[in-house]
Fold:
Amino acid sequence: MTELSTLSRSVAGKTALITGCASGMGRATAMLFAAEGANVAATDINGPGVEAVVAGIREAGREATAWTLDVGDGDAIERVVGEVADRYGCLDILVNNAGISRGGPIDADEYEARWQETVNVLLTAHQRTIRAALPYLRKSDSPRIVNIASTEGLGATAMNSAYSAAKTGVIGLTRGLAVELGKEGITVNCICPGPIRTAMTERIPEEHKQIYARRRTALRRYGDPEEVAHGTLHLCLPASSFITGVALPVDGGLTVRRA
Amino acid sequence: MSLPAEATSFAPSTSDRDHLSVLHPTTDLPALRRDGPLVIERGQGIRVWDEDGNEYIEGLAGLWCTALGYGVEELAEAAAEQIRKLSFAHLFAGRSHEPAVALAEKLREIAPIPNAKAFFGTSGSDANDTQVKLVWYYNNALGRPEKKKIISRRRGYHGVSVAAGSMTGLPPFHKSFDLPLPQFRHVTCPHYYREGEPGETEAEFTARLAAELDELIRAEGPETVAAFIAEPVLGAGGVVVPPEGYYPAIQAVLDEHDVLLIDDEVICGFGRLGTPFGAEAMEMRPDTASVAKALSSAYLPISAVLVPDEMVDVFVEAGERWGVFGHGFTYTGHPVCAAVALKALELMEERNLFAHAARVGHYFQAGLRRFADHPLVGETRGKGLLGACELVADRQSREAFPIQRGVGAYCMQRCLDHGLIVRALGDTVAFCPPLIVTESDVDEILERFGRGLNDTLAWVETGGAAS
Structure:
């Protein structure tokens, strides 16, 4: 057996900017990264929500700061990223998690508006946060970008084309930037969560969740946000230095059962 | 429930959810559990669409019922208007209401029996159950309590409730359900292709069947036999058109033994065979009749038993002795169903639908006959807009495929894949398109069927077996 490298298997001491932290996968990711010793810059459009998450982290003796941020607002992104870097003096990890879901048929009257909003929040915001964070990431010794896409970017559900298009775009953005930024040692990956118990899926009755999971996933269950957070954490470890450009399904085997 | 648009991802489809909460009627339950259902979402004209947006021609008019096709605005409006005005009223204990009376009047005007009164129900099954009870009540009232047995035909279909299911002559409806009840008898199906003996002419076949009926009635004792029930053309038993002269021959036997003829018009009624009722097309002289399905074009569930004034007079007289006539359903004559049925009959009249169906029926039958030479086809048959192709292993010997091979079911599935809904009755593929079909619709139906049939031939020739 060859000797193991000394690459860190921890995000302790790293500064991580995570968007959409007031609930679901963002909250779980913020809590997990903080528990692992990272300085967490947590943002969300829901100010009180993200403040509460940060308060919880601090009560546990970990480090986090809350920012109210609408990722649909490019100027606000610029400002917050700058403030984060000022607050912690560096930025090593960017997790683009904030999202919305605006479904509906292609011929709906409101489709155009839903498309604009969806693409703006789910896709345009990702490149904006990345562009804003890049100068700081370039100074990190293990810069990591993780975009949260979706299995809806790998397959699709009817009546959800704007969402699916945007999530497919996130995968494309991830791949493009992995190639473009690879020479600088910046890894860019994305996670494709499947059926996860989040605000987006809370309106699906429990019984229907179980039917869906039994019929569609290999593990026969919905996932919890923390299980997605662990995937993200893994991609952000300094030791995950040779993983880039991947779209990692965290979906309980949904994707493989479609095969 | 339908989910909000925001939550369409990661929610189960209707077919995913189906198996949790629905027990399906007349279904191969293990196959359903294995394959899941076909979920139909919407319909317009003669076409329906499934939950994935695939389009099909409804070649079986739903379950032999959607005569006017889907999406008829006038019927939606008739229902809405009646719901707004009076959503429910009953006919028990001396109550009445306009929609039921108007529909009964209309039926009296066009019924295949003279001077008919209507007793309303909600399905063909309950109509035929009512037929049995009325016949029993009638003979009790006439002081002949022994005269109760009902004769029907093997492969006849009259419904699934306990009495109607007893009259049905198909094994799946009896086996393991402890049916038929003891008062029910079955005679040979009038299907010359399958039941005719070598060298026997159609006329000889008919005479043999009439003799069989006569012998049965004599063996049982005519004083114990109350009625004979028949669909003019058998539907679910494989679309069987009895030979010419069959009903007059049967009728003579029934008349001789004072046995009533119940005409089950549930499928054949309202233009299906090219005449207003099947009785007219098949030379039947029924004493009573059951109608349902096309009565409302299946927009709402409604059926009617049509009985002559003379029979009702006997009931009234019996009431003097026995009190209340104790039969009826909460939804007997439901005003919304009645209003919709009346509108459906009006539309059929306005659109001259029976004449249209007769004309297109000829075209359809001629088109169907063109498959008679296909290597898989033993017999093509039918009348009007009701037809079938029987698939056989050997055209010469008429040998059927082993039933477990599922050739009919495979053909039905292939037709479905080509956008045509038909029904496999064993290895007989049945057609019963909405009566509004045009000649070009018929061309499209038969073209899609031809593709399904050729796929089936290829599958049979390569030794395919049902999975």
Notes: Chain A is about 45% helix and 15% strand.
